[in-house]
Amino acid sequence: MIILGIDPGSRKAGFGLLNVQGRKVSYIHSDTIHFDIKKEFNERVPEFFNSVKEIVSRFHPEHVVLESLIYVKSPTALIKLAQARGAMLAALHQCGYAGKLFEYSPNLIKSQTTGHGHSDKLAGQKFLDTILGPREYKTDDESDALLIAMCHAFQHNNPINTRSTRSGSLAQSVAHKI
User: Which residue among 12, 28, 114, 177 is least enclosed by CB atoms within 10 Å?
Assistant: First the structure.
C-alpha cells in the first residue's frame, strides 16, 4: 500500500510517500514544495492544486493523509491554511483519486511515532532515521509529511497497527531507543 502524507501550508508544503507491505515500511520519496510567496495568496491557490495533482498522478497513492488544522495565533494564517488545504483536497478529486482520505492531529501523529504528543522536530526525524534509514530533510515540512504517513501506517488496519500488538507497538519500541 502506498501512503502519501501531506503537511499542508500556504507558503510551503511537505509531502512524503511510504510503501507498506505487511510489517515492512519503505521510503519512496519526499520533498517540500515551495510556493511563490511574492505572489498574492489568491494567485498561489492554483499552485496548491497543481502540486497535489502532479504528485498523485506520478505516484498513485492508495491512501492520502493530511495533518488536521492546528491552532494558530493569527486568524488570517488559519484561513489561508484552510484555503490551501481546500485546494489540495479539490485536486485529489479532480485527478480521479478514488482512495480514502485520512486526517490526524499533530499530537496524535507525534504520540504514535515518537511516543510523546509534544515531541520536537528532532525527535521525529530521529524516529524516521531509525525506521527508514538516515537521510537529510530539506525542511521540517518534509519530515513532518513522512511522520504523517507513518502515523497512518500505524493507525490503519495493518499488521503493524500499534493498537493490536501484544508486546507493544513498533512506534513505542523505537521511541524508547531515541
Answer: 177
